[in-house]
Amino acid sequence: MSDSVYLIRISSQKGGVGKTTVAVNLSALLSIMGYKVLLYDTDFSNPSVGFHLGLEDVNIGMQSVIYRRTKLQNATVVHEPSGMHVVPCELNAKSLLTNAEHYQLFKNDIIKAGYDFVIADTPPGQFDSELTGFYDEAVILTTPDLPALQSVLKLAARYDKANLKHSLIINRVKHKNYEIPMRDISGIYGKKPDGMFPESELVPISIAKHIPAVMLNSKDPFSKAANTLSEKYVYKTENPASEGRMPKRSLFRALLKLLFG
Ligand SMILES: Nc1ncnc2c1ncn2[C@@H]1O[C@H](COP(=O)(O)OP(=O)(O)OP(=O)(O)O)[C@@H](O)[C@H]1O
Ligand SMILES: [Mg+2]
């Protein structure tokens, strides 16, 4: 991997489509694969990264970092089972406004800390102050239904305007005939989705247990989809000219690595 950090914003216009779930599992997998990963929560109103990982009791969190009340290291918690670094939100902190300067200073700290991947879990909708020039890529999460999909286009337009590269992930796919088919989704969005996660009971179980789904059952179809996505990011960052298209062999290698270390 190159020595520069890759910053990913996990986002959606519509709430509750699986942003935190995907952010937590992608971060955990990349960390297990040996990359230095930071996952942080920007959802100051309804923070949930801490709940997913059993790290909700933090006194110093993302609000303190972004408002420069403390250093990044002081708010970073190591998630021992995966090794990833996490900055959850403080549950009771007042939500102040942030601006581009706050994010630029935060980015300087991230770069100094030497992370390979930094993944932001975000609230539904967009947050202008951190859009331009901060992230390398925004992931747009959606479910395969019309209300969620039409909101994808709004968010994609915002990202285009901010000159931010974006990709699409479909979550909670049940393969029912009332769902919008993948080829129609590709047509609406303008390119193929980068990932597709199935509906899986493993997800609510893993949230209740505060353990990332991929660590609870690596053979579940949700975990396999998460593995495919994480390997895609590894490939994408190692081969920037590939635009994320990877040979099938890499997927197989990733699976072996996950199963046998
Ligand atoms: N693939 C899945 N299969 C089954 N349940 C899922 C799946 N993905 C997410 N869920 C469920 O959907 C709910 C919302 O997920 P999550 O909190 O990740 O969404 P979100 O987009 O972060 O929500 P918010 O907009 O409130 O931040 C959770 O209760 C989770 O269990
Ligand atoms: Mg969330």
Describe the overall structure.
- With 261 residues, this protein is α/β, with parallel strands linked by helices.
- The protein has one domain: Rossmann fold (3-Layer(aba) Sandwich), CATH 3.40.50.
- It has helices spanning 19-32, 49-53, 62-66, 72-75, 100-113, 146-161, 182-189, 202-209, 213-216, 221-238, 248-260; strands spanning 6-11, 37-41, 77-78, 85-87, 117-121, 137-142, 166-173, 195-198.
- Strands 3-4-2-5-1-6-7-8 form an eight-stranded mixed sheet, sandwiched between helices.
- Helix 10 (221-238) packs across helix 11.
Observed structural traits:
11 helices; Rossmann fold; binds adenosine-5'-triphosphate; alpha/beta; 15% strand; binds magnesium ion
In brief, what are we looking at here?
With 261 residues, this protein is an alpha/beta fold. It has helices at residues 19-32, 49-53, 62-66, 72-75, 100-113, 146-161, 182-189, 202-209, 213-216, 221-238, 248-260; strands at residues 6-11, 37-41, 77-78, 85-87, 117-121, 137-142, 166-173, 195-198. Adenosine-5'-triphosphate binds at residues 12, 15-21, 43, 46, 48, 124, 171-172, 197, 199-200, 203-204, 207, 222.
Secondary-structure blueprint of this entry?
Blueprint: E1 6-11, H1 19-32, E2 37-41, H2 49-53, H3 62-66, H4 72-75, E3 77-78, E4 85-87, H5 100-113, E5 117-121, E6 137-142, H6 146-161, E7 166-173, H7 182-189, E8 195-198, H8 202-209, H9 213-216, H10 221-238, H11 248-260
Parallel strand pairs: 1-5, 1-6, 2-4, 2-5, 6-7, 7-8
Antiparallel strand pairs: 3-4
Helix pairs in contact: 1-10, 10-11
Magnesium ion (MG) binds near residues 19 and 121.
